[in-house]
Amino acid sequence: MNPLNPFAEPARVVAVALNPALDQTIEIAGLQPGAVNRALRMQVDVGGKAVNVASCLSDFGVNAAVAGQLGRDNAALFEELFQRKKIANHCCYLDGLTRVNTKLVDTVSGDTTDLNMPGPEFDPAAAADLLQQVLERLGRLVERTASWVVLSGSLPPGLPADVYATITARVQAAGVSVLLDTSGAPLKAALAAGPRIVKPNRHELAELLDRPLDSLEALIAAGRELLAGSLAPEWVVVSLGGDGALFLTREHAVQAQALRVAVTSTVGAGDAMVAGLVAARLEDLSLTETAQLATAFAAAKLTRLGPHLPRPAEVRALAGQVVVSAID
């Protein structure tokens, strides 16, 4: 058991970090593969999709917690972020290191090259033990104040693909909503448990349905297909990068246009959108207002290195600039 953050407020949102990471971002002016590159600067940020979500929510004034796993040997940076942002730390501490991912940011082209490590490898007994501990901690948080649980990111080697499905079923049976943001087999398995919101990007959605989605019409049809099942989500949000995002319910659909901002780093923009979705649902915003706020979160994150947002007033001002179009 790790010491919980004594400064954290009761959490309204819990982000489950089963495969967190430290993100080492290196800026290079004109990346040349196969050659010696001299870096301009380097920054190490606490990361992993779920941790990014909690960090952005905290910046917006939403009390958040993180449950999952951390490696003891480099946990200090995570603990510093959690304490500084008053994020409740409910992680299990494991022997060894939390994985380190490297992001190569080319300041000339604007491209980011990701080198992501797989994470710690679990045998079946260790995987079962971690899941049991996470479920117990989620159970306590759900009984208190949490109303949303975010399941975000990849799974480390050895964790079964149905882990997110198991957590979704348990959490939603307790009356708390789940937002799911993952890909591949974990996404397919968890969809069967009926999470309230699903946020794939266009590539993850195409992989899930095993067909190309190379037009807006195809993406809309795919999103509506996810909304048609018996345990279907209530919302499907498809992030489209520079083309904005689609926001679909069973009754309505809109497209939000991406904002033009000075891009510092694209890393974590999708996680910021997830945070914006949850923040909007906590405020019970309309579909259009949700699309504006979530898009503003993503745009605001683009202006920062690391999982951080500017002041809430600046994010809300950006939301007022987001153009949203209804889809017939």
Description:
There is one protein chain. With 328 residues, the chain is of the alpha/beta class. The protein has ten helices and 14 strands. Helix 1 crosses helix 8 (269-282), helix 3 packs parallel to helix 4 and helix 8 runs antiparallel to helix 9 (287-302).
Key attributes of the depicted protein:
10 helices; ten-stranded mixed beta sheet; globular; 328 residues; UDP-N-acetylmuramoyl-L-alanine:D-glutamate ligase; alpha/beta
- In the sheet with the most strands, the strands line up as 5-4-1-8-9-10-11-12-13-14
Runs in which pLDDT lies below 50 for 5 or more consecutive residues are none
Taken as a percent bin, the fraction of beta residues is 15-25%
Count of beta strands: 14
> What CATH architecture would you give?
3-Layer(aba) Sandwich
Fold blueprint:
Blueprint: E1 13-17, E2 21-28, E3 41-47, H1 49-59, E4 64-71, H2 76-84, E5 88-94, E6 100-106, E7 112-115, H3 124-144, E8 148-152, H4 163-173, E9 177-181, H5 184-191, E10 197-198, H6 202-209, H7 216-226, E11 235-239, E12 245-248, E13 253-256, H8 269-282, H9 287-302, H10 312-319, E14 324-326
Parallel strand pairs: 1-4, 1-8, 2-6, 4-5, 8-9, 9-10, 10-11
Antiparallel strand pairs: 2-3, 6-7, 11-12, 12-13, 13-14
Helix pairs in contact: 1-8, 3-4, 4-5, 8-9, 9-10
